[in-house]
Amino acid sequence: MKYVHLLLLALVLLLSCSKSGNTNNSNSSLLVSVTEYQSAPVITKTVRNFSYDQNQQLGAVYTHTYDTSGGQAYLDSSLITYPSSSATTPPASYDIIWMIGSVNPTQSATEHHLLYYDGQERIIKDSTSSKTNISNANPNLFTVYFGYNNSTIVAQSLYPDPNHAGFSLMNALDTFSLFNGNLVNSLQYTVAGGNTSIFRTDTYLFSASKNPLYESTLANRLGAELRFINFGDFISPYLMSQWTSNSSTTGQFTRNYNWVTDSLGRVVQGFGTDKISGQVTDYWTFQY
Question: How far apart are CA 26 and CA 211, in angstroms?
């Protein structure tokens, strides 16, 4: 199950990735916060604040999403924490505490996730553990598997079959295509009643502006995970210059992007505009 705006947060983000000795597009500066304003298709403001441990590795991410039309806190405000680990060891788990929630998950619900990797330290499994404490009738006990084949990544989410003990049902299937390290295409499939059909496609062109969320070790270890849960693009070394999306629910649109850098060459803000109307659709700020 995808945590739609949840992980907007910077979730498993720079996790267990030291800022020294790795390729980091933030010029050795730690990212303190990312703010995203969305005017289409919904009016929201999402703020993600990051804290780090003594090794300058990500320790926690606090995310708050606001309904800017009314100024009220939105759903999916959450706190994500990671256990301390060495710079050479990928994180074995992470926890989510939902500060604000509606029906599923409820407020103050917690999730404990276990992470598994292949020989190249790429995530291959994210499994919600039995320590998860969600006080409602539909707990998010699920497992996501990741597979790699050259420049293609496949992610598949399974959950326990309520009618057959020991069996699982698939509820999500995504494929990601890379070119020169950048994520150029994403396909999301709807899985229901044994049928699989394309739900949404996203295609990207890329700029020469470096991606503040990119860190080479993080991209290798957890990039696929973060993208699958709709947290953001931690895979691509560069930021998009154009985004075309086609969804069975929201239709098709194309947005063009421009990014602004500071004196150190770090991207500090950016905005997207609708290709047809020229209207500003989203605005971003980055603080270091």
Answer: 8
